[in-house]
Amino acid sequence: MISRRRFLTIAAAAAALPAPLRAQPLYQWRGVALGANAAITLAHPQAEAIVTRARAEIARLERIFSLHDPASALARLNHDGRLAAPPFELLECLSLAGRAHAATGGRFDPTIQPLWAEYARAHAAGTTPSVKALAAITGRVGWDGVRFGPDAVSLDRPDMALSLNGIAQGFIADKVASLLRAEGLADILIDTGEHLALGGRPGGGGWPITLDDGQRLHRDAVALRDLALASSAPHGITFDTGGQISHILDPATGTPAPAHWRLISVTAPQAGLADALSTAFCLMPREAIDTTLAAFEGAALVHARRA
């Protein structure tokens, strides 16, 4: 897979704050969460200890949602087709995924993982997936084949597999925020690939986020306060070197997202919800996007730039 551009830039460093608001210096940790660049930014005398606890929570959740750790709950589910006594967080995330699936008319569907794997395999070999191969794999895709409850999660069709990459990064941000909120903390910006502002920036106002769609004249700014933001650029990451084969796949057809949208950004009270919606909206016309947003209180489209 070829990484083309990163459209989202963050104006959340100390330089972004007026001098009077910097009495307590901003502390920022940078790392990785589920393969994405991650950061936690705050101004607190115990910032390093707070970040240590947040990083432990990220690591714990990665052991549930990682596709690359064979011991993770998700990897074991995909390998065996069934996972007994699933972690509560996996059930919670699957429940949110089901809501997003229903509200987006099936455009958000974690069962596209076999399609994604076939595109990655074919392009790594210098080819493209055949029509026959895609037709066979599409038959294994479908949210109606996923069953989950406290006792087990099961995939009803042979060779089904889930990818929660379109929701888990935001979901992890929500869980980190819950941990810190329970400690009475606020004014923290959490970035796990998607963003969640727990409170606002120290000294007042929202955390300033700049959305850059790669065109100099098209830049929007969002101030986050007690709000989450997720962005998807359909052709920001592609399978091919020419940048034409989007990493976002239509579960109904098995084909990549058309080059209609350059960047989609969504705000919502929860980062997991914003994450799922921004992913699905890459496959949807504007009218359908507006209808879907009406089903989720507090969710809004803050940037939709056509290609």
What does this structure look like?
The chain contains eight helices and 15 strands. The protein is an alpha+beta fold and 307 residues long. The strands form four sheets. The chain has a seven-stranded antiparallel beta sheet, covered by helices on one side. Strands 2-10-11 form a three-stranded antiparallel beta sheet, with no helix packed on it. α1 (47-65) runs antiparallel to α6 and α3 runs parallel beside α7. The protein is globular.
Tags for this model:
alpha+beta, seven-stranded antiparallel β-sheet, three-stranded antiparallel β-sheet
Total strand count, please? Answer: 15
Going across the biggest sheet, name each strand in turn: 3-4-8-9-12-14-15
Mean pLDDT: 89
**Gap between N and C termini:** 21 Å
- Helix segment tally: 8
- Amount of beta strand: 15-25%
Radius of gyration: 19 Å
Order of helices and strands: EEEEHHEHHHEEHEEEEEEEHHE
Helix % is 25-40%
Globally, the shape reads globular
What class do helices, strands and sheet pairing give? alpha+beta
Biggest beta sheet summary = 7 strands, antiparallel
Low-confidence parts lasting 5 or more residues at pLDDT below 50? 1-22
